[in-house]
Amino acid sequence: MVTSLLKVSYNKKIIELVKGDITLLEADAIVNAANKWLKHGGGVAAAIVRRGGEIIQKESNKIIAEYGPLDVGDAVETTAGMLKAKSVIHTVGPVYGEGEEKIKLWRATTSSLKLADDKGYRSIAFPAISTGVYGVPPELAAEAMIEATLKFLDTAKNIERVIFCLFENRVYSAYEKKIKNLLKEGVVEHYKD
Ligand code: AR6
User: Fold this and answer.
1) Residue 94 near ligand 1, beta carbon < 6 Å
2) Where are the domains of the chain?
3) Is the four-CA dihedral 98, 99, 101, 103 of positive or negative sign?
4) What share of residues in the chain are helix, strand, coil (percent, to 5)?
């Protein structure tokens, strides 16, 4: 089950926080927190391949065979197989401790948004990149990912809804805190239908 818990508007676009499993979402694109080799062995990556099918891993292998390992911050696209989403965008977040984690998370978020926007997608759902196996504190990920999203939405052509799908309560709380601060500052507003 996926539960929508906080919805705000920014520049006529929607930012939404939901709790649950990203593989169940119906967005045009869902983002995968991948590694440089697109070996989807654990965490959200494994869940995406499990539900979407091996086709996602096979297409990922083709991308790596052609272009070699990705850089941190890159984003590439595969089919979504049997998922409800139309597309999976794989991006590589930083491992905590390697340095410049905030900038790198900003880049991973922006390159995923740009890829989706260029494809004409209207909605995209992100997990909390790097906050699992890669060990980035959720507060840092929330800052970087939400700030990058606001900046991107200033000039987005097609994206009108960005969802952050958080799996763990501690991670959800960090994203909620960031959005609540933005509400207080008047940067975003509560969404009204
Ligand atoms: N839906 C939404 N979020 C999820 C789900 C899910 N089904 N499952 C886990 N999460 P992680 P990373 C959350 O470890 O830290 C993989 O092995 C999880 O609670 O998936 O970027 C890759 O192949 C956490 O908040 O990604 C890479 O090798 C967030 O997703 C490496 O892990 C990210 O956790 C990437 O590490």
Assistant:
1) no
2) 20-158
3) negative
4) 40, 25, 40
Ligand 1 atom nearest residue 48's Cα: 7
Per-residue pLDDT, 76: 98
pLDDT tens-place string over residues 147-188: 999 999 999 999 999 999 999 999 999 999 999 999 999 999
pTM (predicted TM-score): 0.98
CATH 3.40.220.10 holds for 20-158 = yes
Question: Burial, 54: exposed, middle or buried (Cβ in 10 Å; 0-12, 13-18, 19+)?
Answer: exposed
Taking the centre of ligand 1 as the mean of its atom positions, its distance from the CA of residue 187, in whole angstroms, is: 29
DSSP string, 46-59: HHHHHHH-THHHHH
Question: With a 6 A CB cut-off, is 141 part of the ligand 1 pocket?
Answer: no
C-alpha to C-alpha distance for 84 and 98, rounded to whole angstroms: 35
Pick the residue whose CA is nearest to atom 17 on ligand 1: 42
Distance CA 16, CA 28 (A): 15
